[in-house]
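## retry 2 of 3
previous attempt timed out at serialization; input unchanged, resubmitting
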Amino acid sequence: MRNKLLYSLLGLVVLIPLGLLSRRVHALPNETGDALWAMMVFCFWRILLVNRPLKVVAAIALLHSFVVEFSQLLTFPWLVSFRRTFIGHMMLGQGFLWIDLIAYTIGVLIIYSLYRLIERK
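## retry succeeded, writing output
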């Protein structure tokens, strides 16, 4: 269990700066940051659900990512204001895009595969 937590914390420490950096590298598609964000969500859920199967963590991370994306269709004034802040934008995004759902799926599949390789050893 200790190693699983360590890998997940390390994942967060690496993925958060990479995700932020991806927004500044204009040669990368915007979806790169979305995939990295979903990978970070996976690591977060792995910490909370350390003893659960990876498939469960992947499903919850993907559901979490999809719910956040679909929540962008909500336009409550307080929510729109929060999304305009740096933290709000990083946590909830801004503006629903179907392509983001694909990026989240790819990100979760990549991190799920990496975790399977790591945890098998």
